[in-house]
User: Which sequence fits this backbone?
């Protein structure tokens, strides 16, 4: 199953969460990012720091699992 990193990025002077390398992922990752904001203190994280992984189905249509590095 394909895996995609959830990464903190500094954008406009503020830390933001995003799922990287997910151009081919058809599943909606907005809920994953929202959950991340509730789980992770992103202000304590560095730009480029991986905080989790999205595991997608083989056809990349659905999210099978989310693993958080907390």
Assistant:
């Amino acid at each position: 199953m394909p895996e995609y990193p959830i990464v903190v990025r500094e954008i406009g002077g503020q830390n933001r969460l995003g799922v990287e390398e997910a151009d081919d992922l058809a599943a909606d990752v907005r809920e994953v990012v929202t959950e991340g904001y509730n789980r992770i203190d992103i202000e304590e994280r560095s730009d480029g720091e991986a905080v989790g992984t999205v595991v997608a189905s083989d056809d990349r249509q659905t999210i099978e699992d989310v693993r958080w590095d907390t």
The two ends are 22 Å apart (CA to CA).
